[in-house]
Design a protein that fits this description.
Distance between the termini: 22 Å
Number of helices: 7
Number of strands: 10
Largest sheet: 7 strands, parallel
Strand content: 15-25%
Bound molecules: 2-amino-2-deoxy-6-O-phosphono-alpha-D-glucopyranose
Number of domains: 1
Oligomer: single chain
Helix content: 25-40%
Strand order of the largest sheet: 1-10-9-6-2-3-5
Order of helices and strands: EHEHEEHEHEEHEHEHE
Shape: globular
Length: 236
């Protein structure tokens, strides 16, 4: 794994956006795997800046997002579909029909998971997958567990994750307790992976997933088995 320590969150965001921008320039119809959470917001801001400066064309780009809360659809401002529209898609010339987020309102989440994995496969997989990381080592919403789940699947969120994400909701009680997330197959088939982590509080988990044992108790540790991962960390 390649490790870059950025001097600031802004620098982290510029580096991540630079890698994604190079991919879009090299392959205008590339497939981007995108992430939510607060950390990638700066990366999306940098991509918007590059689009506004005329450097980037998203008209042929396709995207697949990692996860969505169960019970929320795009009309909810807490949904990850809303987050993506608000933080990126509404500000660039992407065709929304080419953007994909798991359906949190699907009647049968396991069927939705199968549909999503087929979609990723039919796109030929992602060229770049952007990831954040939870304090417990989760990627997407793959929480610490006894096993790694390959398929896109329903998960019950850990208390730690609900606590961490409560800051985006009016109260903790409003945080959905379940989500649907890409599993390790869809994440690991990416040709290139970028993981962004920001803040002193993420330092330990970054060390652990990069250098500790590969174990489902630290879901991000599976990235040690991928051939092209860049971790960009900034302390502040
Ligand atoms: C959520 C998302 C993850 C993200 C994590 C960390 O749980 N499902 O994909 O990595 O938050 O978020 P933050 O970047 O806000 O710390």
């Amino acid at each position: 794994m390649k490790y870059i320590e950025a001097g600031s969150y802004e620098e982290l965001s510029r580096i991540a956006a630079g890698i994604i921008a190079d991919q879009v320039k090299e392959k205008p119809d590339c497939v981007l795997g995108l992430a939510t959470g607060s950390t990638p917001i700066g990366t999306y801001k940098e991509l918007i800046k590059k689009y506004e400066a005329g450097e980037l064309d998203f008209s042929k780009v396709k995207t697949v997002n990692l996860d969505e809360y169960i019970g929320l659809d795009g009309s909810s401002d807490q949904s990850y579909r809303y987050f993506m529209n608000h933080n990126l898609f509404d500000h660039v010339n992407i065709d929304k029909n080419n953007t994909n987020v798991p359906n949190g309102k699907a009647a049968d989440p396991s069927k939705e998971g199968a549909r999503y994995d087929e979609l990723v496969a039919s796109l030929g997989g992602t060229d770049i997958q952007l990831l954040g990381i939870g304090h417990d080592g989760h990627i997407g919403f793959n929480e610490p567990d006894e096993v790694f789940y390959a398929a896109t699947h329903e998960v019950v969120l850990d208390d730690m994750t609900i606590d961490a994400n409560a800051r985006f909701f009016a109260s903790r009680d409003e945080v959905p307790t379940k989500a649907i997330t890409m599993g390790m197959w869809a994440i690991m088939q990416a040709k290139k992976i970028i993981l962004v982590a920001n803040g002193e509080g993420k330092k330990d988990i970054v060390d652990k997933f990069m250098h500790g044992p590969v174990t489902p108790k630290v879901p991000a540790s599976i990235l040690q088995c991928h051939r092209d991962v860049t971790v960009i960390y900034s302390k502040n």
